[in-house]
Design brief:
Blueprint lengths: L14 E2 L2 E2 L1 H19 L4 E7 L3 H16 L3 E7 L5 H12 L6 E4 L9 H7 L11 H8 L8 H13 L7 E5 L6 H10 L3 E5 L6 H6 L3 E4 L17 E4 L3 E3 L2 E3 L13 E2 L6 H25 L2
Parallel strand pairs: 3-4, 3-5, 6-7, 6-8, 8-9, 9-12
Antiparallel strand pairs: 1-2, 10-11
Length: 298
């Protein structure tokens, strides 16, 4: 059965006024994971595969490697050149699947255009899938069964649950239908008995749905899709977007138009991003725990 991890963390540690600090909550969660790892005697292992020379991808992988080291995980990064073949990359995945020191595997996206991302992601063993992108894990989420959940929607749901606000029966509007955020986010909200509406670029009368939202989650990757002044005061607003405007980072939404009057809101930066990173560590640790239990009862 699908279960969202919950942590004994006081709201005062990470909520100030109506701001949901994902940065502070992630720090508290990671501290608890470090303590659990130390007590268990395990050393979960996270492997990242990076193909090509994309600058942003390199930054992301370095950050994940740093997060792993700081939180008691063994980390391994496989860096491959732009011309790596499908067969060569799949061979690395095969080796990681059979490496007993590795409990979580991720392939940094996007991959070079000549590679088949779908085949590569599905080559990862579902029980070692750290990103929650394997079809088996996606299917488990859709069926309400336990499995690895994509890091960003999992981080968002952990934030919502840690708020302590009842979710059952609430109107949850998800803006965006990507496989990485929008669709799994909708599935998680359904599992919490929310009434879920997924909106996208073809939605007619978008504003109608936003006006009725108890929970609004924006994961469109676009700004200025609607006038944020229509967001209701009752809403919990989660902004998954990340945009760079000069030296400033912003989300999908124009924060100043609604932030001071809604029930809760995530800032950008410092909201969803740190929770995504924390959930990657959680997924790897949780995979290690499940593998250890499987060995015990084998």
């Amino acid at each position: 059965m699908l279960k969202i991890p919950q942590f004994d963390i006081d709201r005062s540690m990470w909520i100030e006024n109506n701001r949901l600090s994902g940065k502070k909550l992630a720090a508290e969660i990671l501290q608890k994971i470090r303590m659990d790892i130390a007590a268990s005697g395990m050393r979960p292992g996270l492997a990242a595969v990076l193909a090509g020379n994309d600058a942003a991808s390199n930054v992301y992988v370095n950050a994940k490697e740093k997060d792993a080291a700081e939180n008691g995980l063994y980390s391994k990064v496989i860096r491959l050149n732009e011309s790596v073949t499908q067969e060569q990359l799949l061979a690395h995945i095969h080796d990681l699947n059979h490496d007993q020191d590795i409990h979580g595997i991720l392939v940094q996206l996007p991959l070079p255009s000549h590679l088949n991302s779908r085949e590569i992601l599905q080559a990862i063993l579902p029980e070692k899938d750290a990103d929650g992108f394997h079809f088996e894990n996606i299917g488990r989420l859709s069926a309400g069964e336990a499995g690895t959940i994509a890091c960003t929607p999992l981080g968002v749901m952990v934030m919502l649950k840690q708020c302590g606000v009842p979710l059952s029966g609430k109107s949850c509007v998800v803006l965006g239908r990507s496989n990485i955020v929008g669709k799994p986010m909708a599935a998680l909200a359904i599992a919490e008995n929310c009434t879920v509406t997924v909106c996208h670029s073809r939605t007619i009368d978008l504003e109608k749905y936003i006006r009725d939202a108890d929970i609004l989650i924006s994961a469109t990757g676009q700004r200025n899709l609607f006038d944020e002044s229509i967001i209701p005061d009752k809403a919990i607003v989660i902004d998954v977007g990340m945009h760079r405007e000069g030296k400033k980072l912003t989300g999908d939404l124009n924060f100043e138009k609604f932030a001071n009057r809604v029930q809760f809101v995530t800032p950008v930066p410092g909201g969803v991003g740190p929770m995504t990173r924390a959930m990657l560590i959680w997924n790897t640790y949780n995979n290690a725990v499940k593998m250890k239990e499987a060995e015990r009862y084998a």
